[in-house]
């Protein structure tokens, strides 16, 4: 998930494959939800019809879902990150380089996500673990995952004001983010 998240943030082409239309839609929507407060401004098609498969050759970034019966048509795509939802794999071509998060943030995010998704890990090394470990409900787990990624954005974008430049050429000053 973090690999796909970084690929979406760095404007790569992402293709989801699955035999379930519901899973395709959920995966595409989940990736966009994790990017909050940013908005994805490129091509977004949760379920691509078979007649439009040539769209996958576009030079612009995208997040697209395709039914797995068309997997053979996607094999010749050289610059597309392919996430097989049925097999649970992410295939990154050799010519694609995805920049991951900076190291302290990457490890913190992995640990926070593992604590949300598998709370038993938190007490696994304790000599006397508590007798009951309550797992969060799905609704609460969704909020906890969103909070992990929102905290990540807060850490990534802290100090953004140092990147603002005021240009005074125009009658009114223009603020530019660099």
TrEMBL record:
Origin: domain of life? Eukaryota
Q: Which GO terms describe its molecular function?
A: guanyl-nucleotide exchange factor activity
Keywords recorded for this protein, A-Z:
Guanine-nucleotide releasing factor
Sorted alphabetically, the Gene Ontology cellular component annotations on this record are:
cytoplasmic vesicle
Q: Which GO terms describe its biological process?
A: regulation of Rab protein signal transduction
Domain UDENN, by residue range, is 1-178
Identification of the protein by name: MTMR5 protein
Q: Which organism is it from?
A: Sinosuthora webbiana
Tell me the organism's taxonomic lineage.
Answer: Eukaryota, Metazoa, Chordata, Craniata, Vertebrata
Q: Which gene encodes it?
A: Sbf1_2
């Amino acid at each position: 998930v973090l690999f796909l998240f970084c690929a979406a943030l760095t404007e790569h082409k992402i293709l989801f494959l699955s035999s379930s239309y519901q899973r395709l839609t959920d995966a595409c929507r989940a990736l966009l939800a994790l990017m909050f407060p940013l908005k994805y401004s490129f091509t977004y098609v949760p379920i691509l019809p078979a007649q439009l498969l040539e769209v996958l050759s576009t030079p612009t970034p995208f997040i697209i879902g395709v039914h797995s019966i068309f997997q053979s048509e996607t094999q010749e795509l050289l610059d597309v990150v392919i996430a097989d939802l049925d097999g649970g794999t992410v295939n990154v071509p050799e010519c694609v380089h995805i920049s991951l998060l900076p190291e302290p943030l990457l490890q913190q995010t992995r640990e926070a996500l593992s604590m949300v998704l598998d709370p038993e890990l938190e007490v696994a090394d304790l000599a006397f673990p508590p007798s009951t470990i309550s797992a969060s409900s799905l609704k609460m787990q969704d909020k906890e995952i969103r909070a992990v990624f929102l905290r990540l954005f807060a850490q990534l974008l802290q100090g953004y004001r140092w990147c603002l430049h005021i240009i005074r050429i125009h009658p009114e000053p223009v603020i530019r983010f660099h």
